[in-house]
Amino acid sequence: MQNPSWFLYGPGVAKIEDRAIPTIGDSHDVILRIAYVGVCGSDVHFWKHGGIRKVVSPERPLVMGHEASGTVHSVGPDVTSVKVGDRVAVEPGFPCRRCKACKDGVYNLCRQMRFAADPPDTHGALTKFYAAPEDFLYKIPDGVSLEGAVLVEPLAVAVHATRLGSVRPGQDVIVMGSETIGLMCGAVAKAFSANRIILVDIVEKKLEFAREHLKCETFFYDIKSTSEDNATGLLNAFDIADGVDAVIEASGAETSIQSGIHLLKLGGNFVQAGLGKPKIEVPIIDLSTKELHFHGCFRYSSGDYELALKLLSKRDISLRPLISSVTPFEQATTAWDKTGKGEGIKNLIQGVKD
């Protein structure tokens, strides 16, 4: 096979098939040799259900993978930012660059966004060779491995969420959920010099990892108690009288969202980074009478990837401890299953070997 690729045909059905090696279509295009691809929750949802809003089909299978790193294989004639052999992290969404959202600097909201592994026909990076425009590739700093570079994508999500929360030095921040994004939000808040960072989860093992890796405080969320009781219990446990400055909700769970609103001080910032049920109940009186700033959060936008890489290059954030396993390309479905079972923090799939 010249370009082996993992195609998803439907729930639980995926195959390695060959496809043509991509060619330079625009003078600023770059062809990459993929080194590693990360597995995230959306990959698991696709593997189990065939998609999220849009689904794949046997007639239109989709190449999986959007968290990726690789080396430059070839470049278009007008490419100046990278050269053959460079190691890069991939920002996997390519906007139109012309609409109002793009021109306003919020290209993540572009209606014409072509995001990797998005049905029906935007193929992903779980392949040998992958094409991307040069302005969405980022050279990896010295000291950052190709494995670690895969995590720049979720780190950029965390940077985006933390910036939306206006986290500043000296503030108290609570992160609801301590999966990959929650852990990274905690790490970014720490890099932003937050005074106190408390991670919340329903799994003690995850909280143990957070305490060890981030050196932060943690709180075990009791699913048998109400959202109000959990919020009161947390504030009392940490002697926080008036609430915290910012809550970053990274789980998407309804009760967690409710507790987050109860935890905030007057005028505090709430960022919804996690995805859950399409419709939930919200404590609207608390939200309104406290004049909370409630922010949606979608992927990443202008400056987020650059800042993520700066934090890595300055060693303000370490990602290596988050990598739990590396699975050979030929066994990619094993990595999806492992992540679906909650095994590990971040599982990677190695690129095709010669």
Automatic annotation (TrEMBL):
Gene Ontology biological process terms, A to Z: sorbitol catabolic process
Keyword annotations: Metal-binding, NAD, Oxidoreductase, Zinc
Gene3D superfamilies: Medium-chain alcohol dehydrogenases, catalytic domain, NAD(P)-binding Rossmann-like Domain
Protein origin, superkingdom: Eukaryota
Ranges where the Enoyl reductase (ER) domain occurs: 12-349
Molecular function via GO: D-xylulose reductase activity; L-iditol 2-dehydrogenase (NAD+) activity; zinc ion binding
Database matches in CDD domains: sorbitol_DH
One Pfam family per UniProt: ADH_zinc_N
Protein's pathway: Carbohydrate degradation; L-arabinose degradation via L-arabinitol; D-xylulose 5-phosphate from L-arabinose (fungal route): step 4/5
Cofactor (UniProt): Zn(2+)
EC number, as in UniProt: 1.1.1.9
Cited PROSITE patterns: ADH_ZINC
Transmembrane segments: none
Record function comment: Xylitol dehydrogenase which catalyzes the conversion of xylitol to D-xylulose. Xylose is a major component of hemicelluloses such as xylan. Most fungi utilize D-xylose via three enzymatic reactions, xylose reductase (XR), xylitol dehydrogenase (XDH), and xylulokinase, to form xylulose 5-phosphate, which enters pentose phosphate pathway.
Record-stated family: Belongs to the zinc-containing alcohol dehydrogenase family.
Protein name: D-xylulose reductase
